[in-house]
């Protein structure tokens, strides 16, 4: 899953678009309409007016604007034409700007040797631990409306790194991150 910076224009790559007949031949001359879903909402046309261009072998470059990346959480981008090609989709995670910047900085440390932190006081190491816990850590109570994500290295007895709410189907609808001291 690719990480995106909140409220930042970017270009994503979607593909491959392959022929519906054989499921293998790249479709290279499409003019797709790309739909996005932010935070598991219904799919809607992207806001960006930027032109979608073919890159290579059925892969397309799709511009997104600051409105498209404005909501935190899951972002799904897709396009399809049942008569021409198989559906194409990809999921992204939109992150707060400061956290994204901390994770993509060129150094863990500032010029004076101090470890970089976000305005909320989260270090780069803690940020990665939170992300990995949310993606890989054990989850409990997903059907109760109160999911809890534990540190992966502590199993069910590890410190709680995130808690949130889930709908009747176990889908996370909100999450609160709690970085630990490590």
Note the main attributes of this structure:
2 domains; 35% strand; 5-stranded mixed beta sheet; 182 residues; 4-stranded antiparallel beta sheet; elongated; Immunoglobulin-like; mainly beta
List the SSEs and their pairings.
Layout: E1 2-5, E2 10-14, E3 35-38, E4 44-45, E5 53-56, E6 59-64, E7 73-81, E8 85-95, H1 97-103, H2 124-136, E9 139-140, E10 148-150, E11 160-166, E12 172-177
Description:
- This protein has helices at residues 97-103, 124-136; strands at residues 2-5, 10-14, 35-38, 44-45, 53-56, 59-64, 73-81, 85-95, 139-140, 148-150, 160-166, 172-177.
- With 182 residues, the chain is mainly β.
- The chain has a 5-stranded mixed beta sheet. Strands 9-10-11-12 form a 4-stranded antiparallel beta sheet, covered by helices on one side. The protein has a 3-stranded antiparallel beta sheet with strand order 2-6-5, with no helix packed on it.
- A hairpin with a 2-residue loop joins strand 5 (53-56) and strand 6.
- The longest helix has 13 residues, at 124-136.
- The protein is elongated, with a radius of gyration of 19 Å.
- The chain starts with a strand and ends in a 5-residue tail after the last strand.
- The mean pLDDT is 79.
Which descriptor suits the 3D outline? elongated
Question: What order do the SSEs take from the amino end to the carboxyl end, as H and E?
Answer: EEEEEEEEHHEEEE
Mean pLDDT: 79
State the end-to-end distance. Answer: 25 Å
CATH architecture of the largest domain: Sandwich
The helix content is 10-25%
């Amino acid at each position: 899953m690719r990480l995106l910076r909140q409220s930042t224009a970017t270009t994503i790559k979607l593909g491959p678009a392959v022929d519906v007949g054989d499921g293998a031949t790249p479709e290279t001359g499409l003019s797709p309409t790309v739909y996005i879903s932010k935070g598991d909402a219904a799919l809607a046309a992207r806001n960006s007016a930027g032109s979608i261009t073919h890159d290579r072998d059925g892969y397309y470059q799709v511009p997104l604007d600051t409105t498209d990346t404005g909501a935190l959480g899951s972002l799904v981008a897709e396009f399809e034409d049942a008569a021409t090609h198989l559906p194409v989709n990809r999921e992204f995670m939109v992150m707060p700007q400061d956290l994204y910047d901390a994770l993509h900085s060129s150094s863990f440390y500032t010029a004076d040797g101090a470890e970089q932190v976000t305005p909320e006081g989260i270090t780069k190491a803690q940020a990665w631990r939170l992300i990995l816990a949310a993606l890989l850590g054990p989850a409990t109570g997903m059907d109760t409306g109160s999911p809890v994500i534990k540190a992966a290295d502590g199993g069910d007895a590890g410190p709680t790194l995130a808690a949130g709410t889930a709908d009747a189907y176990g889908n996370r609808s909100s999450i609160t991150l709690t970085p630990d001291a490590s």
